[in-house]
Design goal:
Layout (H helix, E strand, L loop, with lengths): L1 H22 L14 E6 L15 E3 L4 E3 L15 E5 L4 E8 L3 E6 L15 E6 L6 E7 L12 E8 L9 E7 L2 E8 L2 E7 L8 E5 L5 E8 L4 E5 L3 E5 L6 E6 L2 E6 L2 E8 L2 E7 L5 E2 L13 E3 L8 E8 L5 E8 L4 E3 L12 E10 L6 E10 L12 E4 L7 E2 L14 E13 L8 E2 L26 E13 L8 E7 L9
Parallel strand pairs: 3-8
Antiparallel strand pairs: 1-4, 2-3, 5-6, 5-7, 7-8, 9-31, 9-33, 10-11, 11-12, 12-13, 14-15, 15-16, 16-17, 18-19, 19-20, 20-21, 22-23, 23-24, 24-25, 26-27, 27-28, 28-29, 30-32, 32-33
Length: 502
């Protein structure tokens, strides 16, 4: 920490020195008597407030006279009574002034009372320094930033809405999948459909084409491998296409498609009243395990981990052969299917299921670690009623829990089943531009989310003008009567919308 700070200051001093030399090579560097630079800043250790408080890194922006911690302190940190260490090159006056709403400002003579506590909870604090010459002076703005809300929790943010990419006023069916790094959406009313593709839904400039099937498709069965698209007709016959327009029969009859696993399609077939796991193009049939769902499963989520030589494919929920809807996660490792989850969530079929991220901050060195997190919500229960409860797993689906209130969907997003969630990076800008998306307010946060929060607009030149943020796009979904929502919801999970530190 001290090495980083010292290196930053050396660079700043060097830059000032070059600046002076460039203006007039005969001028010496600023003399000690007129020096108003802040050479160091830290918070005095206090484990009652936060462990390793004295190790928090502060940026000293000499050009803009700002001092701040770009990586905010954990949510809830009390910054109302902090003692600080401020290093200078000598001063005749050093005063700290902090605001007290409704009571005026409080000024502390830092030279005489350097151990007095400072209240940073009401915004930036002013540090006024007068050099030893009694003439040169400067004011610095000091901010101790604390997260407004729990960044390591999940929270829907920046929600907005659009229509599905078609020209139908009331389409009856839709399915959206990821295929060859694109979003592919088929929607319509039989026999007329629209095939829409886009590399990134953020700009909403879809390529739309009319589509007619030579059979009656089960649009909900649409899936893809790395190499091709697949769909079932209403009689269970399997078809494939490479472009979504021309479909060819595979001469296979399937009961259900789980999804793609690399170049292989995974599904269920029924032979002599028995259900079998099956694959395509190469056919491998194995008897479905007791308890494994044979229809109504979520989309497949695939992980590659350091603990396995092969990718792991996961499905959530679905309906067993005995007709019972389950709330468990099953996985496939390339050869074998097995139940993965230790516990069951609320039993649903056609759940929305995707992989995202959560974060954990190490308060000893302030490193932030990213963890893959599985998220499941919505779907239809045993009686066919849709839901919207959100569940998460942070250990690859072994244990599941109901997400806290911050991650539960806002009231204006309806209960639904068979909606698809795709994640695409969106280029974020310091100033957002106009778009075709209609913005909606995020969930109302409880009052405790705003406590101990200092000013947030203090990143100055330390932030890029653009950065990548993974947005979630929620396509379609059906109500309890089977009516399609002709909508796409777009949102992001809390921390990932924060401006990154460079």
């Amino acid at each position: 920490m001290l090495k980083k700070l010292a290196f930053y200051i050396i660079l700043a001093i060097t830059a000032l020195g070059f600046h002076s030399c460039n203006e007039d090579s005969s001028d010496p560097m600023v003399s000690e008597s007129s020096n108003v630079m802040v050479s160091s800043f830290s918070i005095v250790a206090n484990d009652k407030i936060l462990e390793n408080l004295d190790s928090v890194f502060f940026t000293i922006d000499l050009e803009n006279a700002k001092i701040y911690n770009a990586d905010s302190l954990p949510f809830g940190t009390d910054v109302s009574r902090l003692v600080v260490n401020i290093g200078t090159y000598g001063s005749s006056v050093a005063e700290i002034t902090y605001p007290k709403p409704g009571q005026g400002d409080t000024t502390i003579n830092y030279l005489k009372n350097s151990t007095d506590s400072i209240n940073f909870s009401n915004g930036p604090v002013k540090f006024h320094i007068v050099a030893l010459d009694g003439v040169s002076q400067r004011d610095y703005s000091i901010s101790v930033n604390v997260h407004k809300i729990k960044p390591d929790s999940l929270f829907w943010n920046k929600l907005s809405k659009n229509r599905l990419p078609n020209d139908f006023s009331n389409p009856s069916v839709q399915k959206t999948i990821r295929y060859k790094n694109m979003a592919v959406c088929i929607s319509g009313i039989h026999p007329q459909y629209t095939l829409a593709t886009i590399s990134n839904p953020a700009n909403f400039i879809w390529k739309k084409q009319d589509l007619s099937f030579p059979f009656i498709p089960n649009i909900s069965s649409l899936n893809a491998t790395n190499q091709a698209l697949y769909i079932l007709d209403t009689a269970g016959n399997l078809y494939t296409s490479v472009d979504g327009l021309d479909w060819n029969a595979c001469n296979k009859k399937w009961h259900h498609i789980y999804g793609g696993y690399g170049d292989t399609l995974l599904g269920v077939t029924k032979i002599d009243e028995q259900f079998y796991h099956t694959t395509y193009p190469e056919t491998k049939n194995t008897l479905v395990e007791t308890g494994c769902p044979i229809s109504g499963t979520s989309p497949i989520v695939t992980f590659s981990t350091e603990w396995s030589d092969t990718p792991q494919a996961f499905i959530m929920g679905g309906r067993r052969a005995d007709g019972v809807v389950i709330g468990e996660m099953w996985g496939y490792d390339g050869t074998t299917w097995a139940k993965i989850s230790n516990n069951s969530i609320y039993a649903r079929e056609y759940m929305t299921f995707f992989s995202y991220y959560t974060f954990k901050t190490n308060q000893k060195n302030w490193d932030v670690t990213e963890y893959p997190t599985l998220i499941a919500f919505g779907g239809f229960d045993q009686e066919g009623y849709p839901g919207k409860q959100v569940y998460i797993s942070i250990d690859m689906g072994i244990n599941w829990k109901l997400a806290d209130d911050l991650l539960q969907l806002p009231d204006y997003i309806p209960e639904m089943g068979d909606a698809q969630a795709l994640v695409f990076n969106k280029t974020m800008q310091a100033r957002s531009s106009a778009s075709s998306w209609v913005d909606y307010p995020s969930k109302t946060l409880p009052s405790w989310c705003g406590i101990h929060n200092s000013a947030i607009n203090t990143y100055a030149s330390q932030l890029p003008n653009q950065w990548e943020c993974p947005y979630i796009y929620l396509f379609g979904g059906y109500d309890k009567n089977g009516n399609l929502y002709n909508t796409i919801w777009r949102g992001v999970i809390n921390r990932l919308s924060f401006k990154p530190i460079i």
